Queue: 2 jobs
Job 1
Amino acid sequence: MEINMNRPQKLSELLNTAGRKELADILRYFVREARPEELSGLMRCASRLREQYYGKKVYFRGLIEFSSYCKRGCYYCGLQRNNANAVRYRLSEDEILACCGAGRKLGFRTFVLQSGEDPYHSDERLCGIVSGIKARFPDCAVTLSVGERSRDSYRRLFEAGADRYLLRHETADEAHYGTLHPPEQTLKNRMRCLYDLKELGYQVGAGFMVDSPGQTCETLAEDFAFLRRLQPQMVGIGPFIPHKDTRFADYCRPSSEKTVILLALVRVLLPKVLLPATTALGTIDPLGREKAFQAGANVLMPNLSPAAHRKDYNLYDNKICMGEEAAECVERLSGRVTAAGFVPDFSRGDHVDWENRLPRGRERILIRGE
């Protein structure tokens, strides 16, 4: 396969115009056949494109995992409703605000509120939490990652002040989606949620797991085709790591190499995207984050959750949640970023095309009073 690694824009154009079969062939080549010098060239392409829009900045977000309850039965997740061994907890609004206060003192200007799909957190409760954070920390962005909800729920949360929403699609192939989820959960609804979020004015994050059970280069091609249709502002990619209490407990543990290659290819596909170096990648490889930065990643999300609960938000086995992963060690983590040749940045870190004010989508919704 002839691909010019010295022309990042040309490779980006190829990924954005290729049909499904050609996309699958390109992905197969890079993850299975490319020579070391070609992979090095891919990393350079990804780095150049990131630097074109973001320089060498790595944006820090403060992660708050505020509830481990979940009504869903995702086959791969340690928080699934059927896991009797899962430790369940909920943070109160005061506890969440205290996490934000601690993060604000450490310099964070973005808080990521993540939970299982917990019915306890109604629109009223969650809107109160969001508006409370925005009232106390008006210069900070609020990102939500709380799963599938109705369009009206997303609208209410947006009006309460939520700026961004993370909802990994996990896979854009319908049959593959069924391998990972029970029948009542559908890819159609997951995609509906993502398009609703975009239309309402959020900065939207999608993403997928690497090496999940049943994944092929053809299903990955569907992921890339979906991402180029959706044009999300953020894409979260991490390796699939099995959990001992799920049906995939004995599934093989992945290496970091494939995830790093796909991170670079996503950066080339969407040059302006915000791309995290995920906790999962850091879990399977002590240098996983540094490798992700070299592949075009530019976001880190240290954990602001109370220390007593960090191990209880157990999505997969052996998740790193203490030490440098904890936000209290932000100086040491910043040092690692600097040592890798990048610049820690604690600003809101919006997508490069996002104006630093209320998006027009929010103004439109508030005026219409929908």
Note: The beta strands are 57-60, 62-67, 110-115, 141-145, 164-166, 203-210, 234-239, 299-300, 343-345.
Job 2
Amino acid sequence: MKRHTTKFYSFFLFFSLPLFASEPFTNIHGFYGERAAGLAGAFTAIADDPSGAFYNPAGLGFTYNDGISISASNFKDVKRSYINIDTPGQIYSQTHQGFDPNFIGLVKNFDKWKFAFSVVNTYNFSYNRVDQVNYPLVSPSINSTRNYTKEKYNQLLVGPSIAYLLSDKLSIGATLYYLNDTKENSRTQFQQFSDLSYVMRSYVDNRKTSGILPIIGIQYQPVQKISLGMSMRRIFVLGGNRLYNEVYADSTRRPGTAAIDFIEGTGLSSSAIEAGALIQKPNLVTSIPQTSEFRWGIAYFPTSRILASFDIIHTSGYKVHKNQDEMSLRGNRLTLTTTNSEIRELTRIATTNFAYGMEYYLADNFAILGGIFTNEPNTKPVSWTESAVDLYLQNTFANKNSLNSDNVSLVYKAARSGTNPRNEYSRNRGLSLGFTWATSKSSLSITYTREIGSGNSRIDPNSLSQSFEYSSHAVYLMVSSKN
């Protein structure tokens, strides 16, 4: 039995490596619209083109032409690097390259009333990897590990906007987006040990969540050269579904009911057969964090050719609790296991980010835009000390206490920091540089953004935390027209 336990932990060590690595760990996933991208997202006090529906719908009140704006192409290249992950000097890198539309919007002008409709692809990450690790130093009993991974995360917003110009200085507006958020993961791992035995695990985890995202805003221009803006939004989940299916095989097990483990779960029920035990597990989570966001912005127009803008973006934290107890039955032996009720995959830490942008018209129809921004993590810091304490408690006490009586066992299992899915902490900084060619009827823009960051992560629950580096490049190509 000891041999099997050692093998299981070695298997879990490597399998858990990138399990949650692709989930968004920051609140700013990109920029949407023609000028907003060039200004690094500092657009709340301007918002006078179709992308204002996302940043501050009140800004639509100051549009005076019908218009359509299309971010026809957005190329993004992301790289996450986990340093010294299983062997000193070894770097595990996870990359994404995508070429997608990220914004389509239009505005219709009816004097003081303005109506708009927009489609926003806030993020779209896709990973397809094949990895192999041979003879890792941290686990001498392992000969090789092979991973086959596919992951996809997507969020889409679709909906109308309305704005009303109360006076030539004040406007109010609102947007109501329908939200569709999906996760599609599949993975297979084969691991062979020094005694030529092996284990194999394969799983599929698909989730789809629907909701609404209302945005309300106000914009005020006290004097001709200054504009002030504010917007508020919150995610409301309406429903969702999820399906998880897993199969685990161990060649050292005897043929029979204990030879194969099966786990299957949905948002309504979840159960498993593991090593011959029948286990009732907690229902799967079908929601996403229902966070709120507040934006404050100021824009300054010293001349007709120069614009400077500044935004503060505060995103609230989120935490929810739910019964996570399990019941296991093996023969006539009943085990009840209780643990922390916090749903850690939904936990978010509040963040405050800043964006600063400038626009300068070198000629009547040619402008250059640039900006800088922060992108703080919505996770807790991952410390080396905490990981060391976690490993000590796990190795000494298995992070649990048991009370046994006849054929009934009561177990309290403390939540390990090493198994927290929110296991990446990186403080990111970025810049943008854009060029716009504009006429009275149309415009064409191209913008480049660069974002880098560093911190710590712990994607291996049986090792200490490791250094982490983030790097991304994005190119936005946008076309718009006016009537």
Note: The chain is about 10% helix and 60% strand.
